[in-house]
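step=encode ok
step=design start
structure_in=
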């Protein structure tokens, strides 16, 4: 294939991609409102992003497929945000634990009760610290059990 032909094919592919990027036929709003590329002759291109206003406020009920606001969805949402305690990671400690949490006003944990104790206290204190600042999307008075497995995955 000639170089001119390959450049023309490449140009047409890129042109098609940018057309769909700017005029997305599958979306209700144009992506151009979210991404803006500014080109000036003789300068480095500038790229600007605009995040949606509701970004970071948790998953929308439509994105959870009917599970939003259910205890199962809230447990998974919390478990996906809890981090491995650095002190336990350094020592390669592992444990399976469970807690019973009663939801209080404004979705905060009112009462935390250990159902299955951890082998090491570092997991217990880390969980209590994490859950005490978490805001659940469940009604006040609801009691849930949160099982957490602190395990290190390795390739060995």
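sequence_out=
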């Amino acid at each position: 294939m000639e170089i001119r032909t390959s450049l023309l094919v490449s140009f047409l592919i890129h042109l098609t991609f940018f057309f769909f990027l700017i005029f997305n036929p599958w979306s209700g709003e144009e992506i151009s409102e979210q991404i803006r590329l500014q080109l000036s002759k003789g300068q480095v291109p500038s790229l600007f992003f605009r995040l949606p206003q509701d970004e970071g406020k948790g998953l929308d009920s439509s994105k959870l497929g009917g599970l939003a606001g259910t205890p199962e969805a809230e447990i998974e949402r919390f478990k996906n945000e809890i981090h491995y305690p650095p002190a336990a990671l350094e020592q390669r400690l592992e444990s399976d634990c469970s807690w019973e949490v009663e939801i209080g006003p404004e979705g905060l944990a009112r009462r935390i009760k250990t159902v299955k104790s951890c082998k090491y206290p570092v997991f217990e204190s880390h969980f209590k610290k994490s859950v005490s600042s978490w805001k659940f999307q469940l009604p006040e008075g609801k009691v849930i059990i949160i099982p957490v497995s602190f395990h290190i995955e390795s390739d060995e």
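step=design ok
step=annotate ok -> The chain has two domains: 3-49, 71-150.
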